Amino acid sequence: MTPLDAARPLAKADSAPRLPRHVRLHFDQIRGAWALLSPEKVLWPDEVSLSILKLCDGRRSIAEICGELAIQYEADVDEIQTDVLAFAQDWSDRMVLRL
Amino acid sequence: MSASGPPIGILAELTHRCPLQCSYCSNPLELLKANRELGTQEWLSIFQQAAELGVLQVHLSGGEPTLRPDLIEFVAALSARGIYTNLITAGVGVRDGLMDELAQAGLDHVQLSFQGALPETTETVGNHRGAHQKKLNTAHRVRDAGLPLTLNAPIHRKNIAEVERFIEMALELGAERLEIANIQYYGWALLNRQALMPERDDVMRVAALIETAQHELRGTLAIDFVAPDYYARFPKPCMGGWARDAFMIAPNGDAMPCHAAASIPHLAFENAAQTPLAQIWENSAAFNAYRGFDWMKEPCRSCERREIDFGGCRCQAMLLAGDASATDPACSKSPMHDRILELAIRDSSNGAAEVTYRRIGVFD
Ligand code: SF4
Ligand code: SF4
Prior knowledge:
The complex is a heterodimer.
Chain A: E1 24-28, E2 33-37, E3 42-43, H1 47-53, H2 62-73, H3 77-93
Antiparallel strand pairs in A: 1-2, 2-3
Chain B: E1 9-13, H1 40-53, E2 57-61, H2 71-80, E3 84-89, H3 98-105, E4 109-113, H4 119-126, H5 131-144, E5 149-155, H6 163-172, E6 177-182, H7 187-191, H8 193-196, H9 200-216, E7 222-226, E8 246-249, E9 255-256, H10 277-283, H11 285-289, H12 306-309, H13 314-321, H14 337-348
Parallel strand pairs in B: 1-2, 1-8, 2-3, 3-4, 4-5, 5-6, 6-7
Antiparallel strand pairs in B: 8-9
Helix pairs in contact in B: 1-2, 2-3
The complex binds iron/sulfur cluster (SF4) (2 copies).
């Protein structure tokens, strides 16, 4: 097989991440928690992951998402951006986020 | 031991009927005829109860679930309750327009099986002329309906050489996921094990190849790999633990912790059309039999991996060690392990080609 590494989507400040079609965020009334539903697994994102995921609507860029999070968490926007880029890259690699 | 929380997933086997006759099919040898299947209202009631119980995911499977004319109704009812619906289909005989209607009803995801990556293989393994092309057509209809797609490649000796081609096919068809799963030896697969067990070298080659592909294709195609546990060092965490967060319901409504559970002779199963689902989940003696860790013997009882693999598969322990509470012989810590490995090596190299095709009525 030819190396396809070139096709790997990379998280950048101007990427506008969204959930892929096979992944859905769902509030579970019974457990009182947000679940990320995907074909094989159900993930239970922690509070920080959840606040990022909720902003991944395919319109906001990562830079914009970080701006909002910086206000929400009263934190430094550059630090947040490093974390969010790493998060987006990891989740994209696992196909639970589209860049 | 009782349930520690509500169930997350249900595998609903809506029917045993299927246009294919795969020799590796995990359905039981005694297949249920159409007249034993639950009716529409019975399934709808089960699905409502499932939602109330906290189920988040329902896999609609079979046999071939698209043979049920009420499939759309089921998807609509589940999706109205926010439940994630996954259709597991062989993609043969799927009528025009069904995928669009399912998408409109709220279907979340389609898992489509290919018995081979080459048309001849698909046709021989499923014993169905033209099956490959029909499956390709279904794949395109899934995409046209805007539905996400997982290709399912059940692997054994007759198709293990086609793994690379399976990956290419998944990319060509624009699938999000590819599941390359070595078949599990229950039911028909166990019956045909001599003709299906792959050689160890091939398994190793494929495992390495998949690892490379997983890395190269990250972010493009998710590849899940299930290794064949006869050759493994540790067993699979069967069902993520017995009655821990998922279970299955057979076409006649029997609720079981896993689809091979009927191979454990001393277990009796409740029927979900007669007993409330919540009661089955909490109180079924079969569900409670191997929940948690109290039932375990050594070496599992004091093993540090027991929360990872839960001692492996109870049905495989029953089938291979003759004791459902024994350590799964697929585990290298099992005293039976060497015999299982020998058995796999012997089966894999015996040259048997003949299989008994899966058909309703062969074992009644
Ligand atoms: S494994 Fe083959 S025969 Fe069995 S249900 Fe699936 S498609 Fe049908
Ligand atoms: S001894 Fe039991 S718990 Fe430990 S790895 Fe083997 S099967 Fe798993």
